[in-house]
Amino acid sequence: MTWVEELDPRTKLAWCLCLILSALLSNVVMVEVGILILVIATDCFFSRDLKSYRILLPVILVVASQILIIQLLFCREGVPLWQWGVISVYSGATPAAALGISRTAAVTFAAVQFMTRTPAMDVALMLVSWRIPYRYAMLTIVAKRFLPLMQREYRAISESQSIRGIPTDGIKDKIKSLPLALMPLLFRAVRRTSDIALSMELKGYGRSNQRTFEKQLCLKNREKIGMLLLFSVFIAANFI
Amino acid sequence: MNKKFFRTDTKALVGSIILGIVFLIASQASGFIDNLLPTGKAGMYLINGTVWASFTALIVLLYKQPAGLIAAEVEAFTSVFYSPLWVAFIFANAVGSLAVSFVAARYSMEKWSHHILAMFFCNVLGNAIAGVGLVTIFQLPVSVAIVETLITIAVAWPLSTIVTKLVYDSIKNSGLAR
């Protein structure tokens, strides 16, 4: 377990919220880029693992192209730079697109950092510490357990549909095949719910109002000081 | 009203998580298709919007609240990995789910008109919040975001109503959701 994973989840949440709110409140591209660099730098420094961001790159590239196209087509700020028929490109389009892309990336990377560096059990314990009944708090662990299982099930259904001869090459075929894969998954999920709920109840889930956990959350003094410093910097940077 | 609005048994809680994951997979798959379409390239996720509204309503109809909210938030928080609008989804999903709950608590949800009303509120409120996300996160001009939101509502409302009614009836008839 890395040093970051041993941190209290509330400290990580405070860090994540400060970064996201700063990204949303700022209108300066350099601040957004700074937040992005800060997220990557902290991950490089503390865990040296950037695998989780690799899957985000195609998403960010698609969104970046969308924002750029929309800003070039519809932004009407600044002076006209180029005109062709009804389409005109204004000088304000590129800065607006740059801000949109950098803000999107900063917000997404900060959230992914929190989600990948916080174990589901810690999230459940954090919710319990906020007086949320354990019957609800423990659902984060159920979600973490069943996400890969359901994804595997969806892939198996999609593959079995294509083996049966359902085409999935063009966009039209992809749209047509969507309900054919999703409906069996939905029915399986509803059926599986009954089985899982029954087995959980038989093991005593929800029988008593309290339950004990192997791990206990404890905010260390250095984490409290760190959070205080973090909030001070956040308020100074955004509101003063 | 209380019995029609709330359901807190283990089956409803587990169902919220499992269907929340199915909701996530469906949103991912439909978002991928939308990105291939010209409307998706312009920021209008029409198929994704339809799937979103249908699943939001289905989960509420099957398991009520707080299952609807839990499933909606599972989808919103996990969508970090495929949609930068996840911040807007946190609020949009919650509001959409609650809108369906209020209609479902008042009506039997056996007629088409009940579903039309529920999906109207779900689509309008949810897409309005997603529209705010388009302006604040994507930095889209307000006029473009309004037009995109209206087009998404116009397409997703009728389609999601049909999908929700047909799928909900088929699940009820199958006897899986007693």
Topology diagram in text:
The complex is a heterodimer of chains A (240) and B (178).
Chain A: H1 3-6, H2 9-25, H3 29-46, H4 51-54, H5 56-74, E1 80-84, E2 87-90, H6 93-117, H7 120-129, H8 134-137, H9 139-163, H10 171-202, H11 221-239
Antiparallel strand pairs in A: 1-2
Helix pairs in contact in A: 2-6, 2-11, 3-6, 5-6, 7-9, 9-10
Chain B: H1 2-5, H2 10-36, H3 38-41, H4 46-63, H5 67-78, H6 86-106, H7 112-136, H8 142-174
Query: Could you tell me how far the N terminus lies from the C terminus of chain A, measured between alpha carbons in angstroms?
Result: 39 Å
What is the averaged pLDDT score of chain A?
85
How many domain units of chain B?
1
Class by SSE composition of chain A: mainly alpha
Overall form of chain A? flat
CATH topology of chain B: Arp2/3 complex 21 kDa subunit ARPC3
Q: What is the number of helical segments of chain A per DSSP (H or I, 4+ residues)?
A: 11
**Backbone structural class of chain B:** mainly alpha
Strand order of the largest sheet of chain A: 1-2
Q: How does CATH name the architecture of chain B?
A: Orthogonal Bundle
Write down the secondary-structure element order of chain B: HHHHHHHH
Q: Which residues of chain B form runs of ≥5 with pLDDT under 50?
A: none
Number of strands of chain A: 2
- Largest sheet of chain A, if any? 2 strands, antiparallel
Counted up, domains of chain A total 2
